[in-house]
Design a protein that fits this description.
This protein is 74% helix and 0% strand. The chain is an all-alpha fold and 81 residues long.
Length: 81
């Protein structure tokens, strides 16, 4: 599931939770269901964002490695042949 889809589901769960809380005679089963769904979606979103950040940082390091490979030796201006 993409991060955008998670945000849409979180918005829907928050809306339904708010609607249920605004009722004077709320149904506890629905209230707990929406709260649990929202909690699991928020946890999944945090994990997905962390994984996305990690993947970007790893791919950035890989690109830097390709540009500046470790095996190449830099020549100093002070080195004499």
């Amino acid at each position: 599931m993409s991060i955008t889809q998670r945000y849409l589901l979180i918005n829907t769960a928050q809306s339904k939770l708010s609607i249920e809380l605004s009722r004077s005679d709320y149904r506890l089963r629905l209230l707990i269901g929406h709260a649990n769904l929202l909690d699991s979606l928020m946890t999944g979103l945090a994990e997905a964002e962390q994984m996305q950040w990690f993947n970007r940082s790893v791919s950035g390091a890989r690109e830097a490695e390709e540009r500046y490979p470790r095996g190449r030796r830099c020549i100093n201006e002070y080195e004499v042949d």
